[in-house]
Each structure stands twice: as structure tokens, then as C-alpha cells.
Amino acid sequence: MMINPTSRAVFGLRVNLSRCLRSLPRLACRSYSQKVVPLTKETYPSTARNQAFARLSSDDIGEFKKILSDKNVLTDATDLEFFNEDWMRKYRGESKCVLKPQTTQQVSQILKYCNEKKIAVVPQGGNTGLVGGSVPVFDEVVLSLANMNKIRSFDNVSGIFKLDAGVILEIADQYLAEQGYIFPLDLGAKGSCHVGGNVACNAGGLRLLRYGSLHGSVLGLEVVLADGTIVDSMHSLRKDNTGYDTKQLFIGSEGTLGVITGVSILCPARPRFTNIAFLGLESYEAVQHCFTQAKNELGEILSAFEFMDEDSQDLARKFIKQTHPLEETYPFYVLIETSGSNKEHDDAKLETFLETSMENGIVSDGTVAQDEAQLKTLWYWREGVSEASTIGGGVYKYDVSIPLKDLYGLVEAARERLEEANLIGETDDFPVLRVLGYGHVGDGNLHLNVAVRRYTKEVEKCLEPFVYEWISEHHGSISAEHGLGFQKKNYIGYTKTENEIKLIKQLKNLYDPNGILNPYKYV
Ligand code: FAD
Ligand code: MLT
Ligand code: ZN
Q1: How many Å apart are CA 482 and CA 401, to the nearest integer?
Q2: What CATH code is assigned to 389-482?
Q3: Burial class of residue 70 (count of CB atoms within 10 Å of its CB; 0-12, 13-18, 19+)
Q4: Hey, what CATH topology would domain 151-266 get?
Q5: Is-above-0.90 flag for pTM?
Q6: C-alpha span between 487 and 102 (Å, rounded)
Q7: Which ligand has its closest atom nearest to the C-alpha of 512?
Q8: Which residue, judged by its Cα, is nearest atom 23 of ligand 1?
Q9: pLDDT tens digits for range 366-423
């Protein structure tokens, strides 16, 4: 049976579907005419430059030009801007040099040289990271993987895909689509981020619920260590129990242990049919009931379960400037995706789920995509929230795991605290514009965003360490998917024990004794 939303009064199709908005255009064309981002060293003066690191000399630049061609050694101030400033326009370094190697050998030669000279290095992928990890804090050299962008091989029987770390996620997925496969990770920054960057931060994304974590799907890595040693474990093996699984250490290490140059990953067959339902709900309790019911009734075809609150959709309305999928506003919205191989079966399951959810009062309204364009548009009302949250000028981002029952409580607590401090309001007198909550309910992962008109110490002090304490008290993690970077380096203790932190520091000292890889971050 076909899902026909128009046959049910409650499921009206009201989306404006003329444009495919899935990839994020702003990422490619950030405007630098806007006000200048203060240097990280000025905003966070308590972090001092490590004087053990050498200052870059013209001799060093000359050596880099011997390893790379001239055009792949950037030193012009305008060329450096993109690489020095992060996506949130919150952190800015003052690197004087960006290196763009094309081969693993070149990465190895660069790191060997930098290690010997004690030149600090920041590995950088698409620079879409959200914790200030991808940009220098001081004058570290940026090692961009953007020119390492070749697909190495694909086995269309096993689904094992090998590619350079600098391949853009969307390009990797498009390549796989032609072979009937899918990349087991999808996220809003797919048009700019690199697969190496994804692995380096162990990105979770929109379909972790279906495809699991990169710790499971990555089969092997090629990594260059700080001293230039190339460690090649680009396996084509699904199972391999010979010794420690060393690649796991680099997944989520955020460029602090080695530079990832190659990725071998297991890719599943691309689902042939996809449905999206966009629903309005009256309470966070209803969101939880809806999730339980979706798991029970949609079972194996459920591929995403995302939620957004009304504040996040209100900002999205202002940003997207199109008609919202639902006519009425609701305190909460849920986006459900199903993916499968039998359209009739999937449609029937979704229809039953929607009917039951409406009948028992869990869902108040909703709409279902009828074609590919509508599907992308509905997704954009979820994915576009990241960009919408920067509409005022900046955003404090907290990316947390909390047991589901308490998940939204953090948004309410943060909102209340900012209101009490008189920091939030409708006019320019207030630094905070809005507090929003959205995220991957299916993974117990909330994104608390505090959209601001300007970054201020007053707001930051009101939120930190309050947010981290709240998470710790509720047995959560301060970093569900974005990592620690510069933002959370002082707060790891809220989630990890002393002995875990000790082990992390020992590993760092072992792999990078001079500490040249992504300093001032992580721990
Ligand atoms: P970068 O930002 O360049 O780097 C991130 C970190 O990895 C840095 O510490 C850097 O030093 C290190 N690094 C990068 N490349 C390498 C390498 N080759 N070797 C070693 N270290 C390296 N994250 C999620 O988990 N889920 C989401 O749903 C999600 N959605 C996003 C949506 C938007 C709009 C944006 C802007 C970000 C989103 N993110 C999400 C954040 C996310 O982690 C990144 O977008 C992505 O994974 C980072 O990849 P990148 O290539 O841009 O890495
Ligand atoms: C998301 O889920 O949209 C991302 O992790 C990015 C964000 O938090 O904005
Ligand atoms: Zn996310």
C-alpha cells in the first residue's frame, strides 16, 4: 500500500519543495568581510605558547618547498585565512604556513622534519570541526590533507572501500552510490568534511543508529606518526584478531597521535527505498514514546530518529526562509527515516506506525516526503539547524550523551540559568539570542546550542563549567561526537577517570614524545 499523506487529514503536504538544499553552501564561501574573529590567544590568555616549539624560519619554508611543489606551500596572508579560523568563527590562530601534501611519503617527510626541528603541526581536513581542534592556537603549521583526495580501490563484492584521507565525504558517497553502496556515515557538513577528518573525530552523524560507529566500520588505516614513520594497516579483512587493534587508537584521536592518510572502510549496500516522516509532538515525553514505538514497529527499516525543539526550528525558519513542513508550531519535532529494499513493505510499516502514533496521541501532526526532492527538503530542516544556530553571529555548542530520560533537561537547565543571569532576550542588549536543543535521540546524543549575538566571557562563565557539571551529575559524556579539541581540553575529567586520563597522556607521550601534533588540544 502506498503512503498517501493527503488521504489523512492530519498529514498535510505543505513543504516548498523546489530546491535541493542538502549540501551546505556557506561552507565553501565563508565571508571574511564580516567582523574579524579575535585571536584564540587573546580570548583564552591562560593557554600559553609552548616555548619549546621552534618559530618558523625562511629556511624551514625552503625545506618544505623541497618536499612539496611551491604551490602547495601557502604563506600568503589571504590564503591562510580559511585555515586559521574555525567554522563557528570562535577560534583563530596565526599560522604563517599551510602545507598541502599529495602523497603519504610527503606527509612522512614533513613530519620527520617538523619533529626534528620541533615545529608544531595541526592536521586539518575540511575544517568543519566544532570544538576548535582543526585550527592552530598560535603559530603551528597547518598540514592540510585537501590534496590527498584519491579513491584507491573498491571491492563491489565485499563493499570494502579504500581511499585517501582527504576525499570529501559527499564525493566518497557519490562514488559509492554509482556502485549501489553507501558510505556508513552521513552528516550536515558532508559537502566539505574529509573522510580522514571524520575518522579523526570519530564522527557519529545522522545514521549511527543504522550503521554504527566508525570504530566498527573502519577496517584499517594508513597513519603517519609524529617522527614520520608510516604505519600501514589498510586491511581488507573484516575479522583480524592478531594482536592489539592499534587503528582504534587513531579513531577519535583528533590529530594528536598521528596523521591519517588512508582509510579502509566497510560499506553496506545502498538501501533502495527511503521514506522520511517529519512529525510534530507536544512534549519531550512524547518524543521518547515515539522512539520506543518506532523501534518496535519499524524495526530493521528504521535508519534515523532525530529530534528538534521549537527554538531550533524557529531559528531554522529565519535562516531557511521557506515554509516550514508543518503549519502549526509544536514544542518538539521528530524526523524519522526508514530505509529498506521492499517499498511496499516499508510503506506499509511506516503507515501503520504513523496511524498508531496518531491514534494513541504520541504524534500530533506530520508530513511524509513523496519524492527525492521532498526528502532532501525535510532533511534540511534538521541538518540546517547547525547553520541556523550561527545566525546571530556565534554559537556555544555542547555535544553530549545523557541517558534519554534526562536528555532534554540540560536544555531547560541552561535556558533557566541564562534567564536568571539576565543574559537572554529579544533585543541586541542581550548577548544570548536563543537556547536550542536537537540531536540524535536514537544515539542518546543531544546538541545543546546557545545562539549568541556575540561571544562574551559572561555567557561562557555562566555556561561553563555548569553544563559539564550537569552532564557529569546525570552520568553523561561531555563529548558524544564532536570531540574535545581546544574547547573541552580542561573538562575531560568530567567524563573520564584519573586513570583513564593518565593512560591517554602516556599514549600521547609514547606516540608523540615532542608533543608536536595538535598541541594545546585534547588533554
Ligand atoms: P577538521 O575539522 O578539519 O578536523 C577535525 C579534527 O580532526 C581536528 O582535530 C584535526 O586536527 C583532526 N584531523 C582532521 N583530519 C585529520 C587527519 N587526516 N589525520 C589526523 N587528524 C585529522 N559531527 C558529528 O559527529 N556528527 C554530525 O552530525 C556532525 N554534523 C556537522 C554538521 C555541520 C554543519 C558541521 C559544520 C559539523 C558537523 N559535525 C558533525 C562536526 C564534525 O566532526 C565534522 O564536520 C567532521 O567530522 C570533521 O571533518 P573535517 O574533515 O572537517 O575535520
Ligand atoms: C548535528 O548533529 O547537526 C551536528 O553534530 C552538528 C551540530 O551540532 O550542529
Ligand atoms: Zn550531531
Answers
A1: 11
A2: 3.30.70.2740
A3: exposed
A4: 3.30.465
A5: yes
A6: 30
A7: 1
A8: 203
A9: 999 999 999 999 999 999 999 999 999 999 999 999 999 999 999 999 999 999 999 9
